[in-house]
Design a protein that fits this description.
single chain; 298 residues; mainly alpha; 13 helices; globular
């Protein structure tokens, strides 16, 4: 049965929102898992197993594979790997809530990266949103009377936003003409190879054993947070846009803070809360252009 464009649009938005909620729940789970499983082994396991499972389930689709998939998927996958590496290492040195919210700054960067690639300049709302976001980041990172910013924590988390933005731009540029599953698998394989290089370069070791809790967390992070969520995101961007998808997926920061408060018992100060609110305001300015005020005035 052929679905209409309207139904596909609705399905893609539901898939994006579902991925956002799942990703939001992953921050505190990943934080606890990193106490037992090394970073690059964890990420390499997620990407390799997800790629293998998708290939087994949808192997017939790989008849469409060609050099375009290899080139586009490899570049996008490298951005994906670097985003996850900087985010995951950053999470070791900051809290899940701060990590979640600073990661969401990628949605402000997407229009500027699209400008660089497509030569379409951002509007005044994009610029206002960028500076508003920077102010919010400052409030999040600066503690009471002292600077709490660290490169390994907040710094790497901000860098991960750059690579996530690039990944979303690449998906919009190339994903609309490619099969979602095949494109995703190539991304995962490229990301796995990058993680493998870091694994050997840093001298990490494969853990001798895993606790039952770590096994459950690893399965959750691999099946839901990687395999399912990235299929949902790639499908969503293919049938909407990177700009629209970024406003939906950045809400993972909101869910990340909520889950972190409930399960990780993170305490959020008033100053940090204001910073979070300002970052979210920047996201809304960037994506809605304050259109709801215009409708109200009319």
């Amino acid at each position: 049965m052929q679905l209409s464009e309207k139904k596909i649009g609705i399905i893609s938005k539901i898939m994006l929102f579902t991925a956002t909620v799942i990703w939001g729940s992953s921050f505190f789970i990943l934080k606890n898992t990193l106490d037992e499983i090394p970073v690059y082994f964890l990420l390499g396991f997620r990407f390799s197993v997800s790629a293998l499972l998708l290939f087994i389930i949808f192997f017939k689709r790989f008849k469409a594979f060609n050099l375009k998939y290899l080139r586009s998927g490899a570049i996008t996958g490298v951005s994906l790997a670097l985003a996850y590496i900087t985010q995951t290492v950053g999470l070791k040195y900051t809290t899940p809530g701060v990590n979640a919210f600073l990661t969401s700054t990628y949605c402000v960067l997407v229009p500027f990266f699209m400008w660089f690639i497509t030569k379409k300049a951002p509007d005044k709302f994009n610029i206002i949103a960028a500076f508003t976001c920077l102010f919010g980041i400052g409030l999040v990172c600066i503690g009471t009377g002292a600077v709490s910013f660290t490169f390994l924590g907040e710094g790497l988390t901000l860098i991960c936003g750059i690579f996530f933005a690039l990944q979303m731009v690449f998906i919009e540029l190339w994903g609309k003409d490619l099969d979602v599953v095949v494109f995703t698998v190539v991304q995962f394989l490229a990301a796995f190879l990058v993680c493998l290089i870091f694994f050997f370069a840093t001298g990490e070791k494969i853990p001798d054993s895993f606790s039952p809790a770590a096994c459950v967390s690893l399965a959750f992070l691999t099946i839901l947070c990687t395999l399912v969520c990235f299929i949902f995101m790639n499908f969503g961007i293919k049938h909407t846009s990177a700009a629209y998808s970024s406003i939906v997926t950045c809400l993972e920061a909101v869910f990340g803070v909520l889950f972190s408060i409930v399960f990780y018992h993170e305490r959020v100060t008033l100053q940090v809360s204001v910073g979070f609110a300002i970052i979210l305001l920047a996201v809304l300015i960037n994506e809605t252009k304050l259109s709801f005020f215009k409708r109200k005035s009319r």
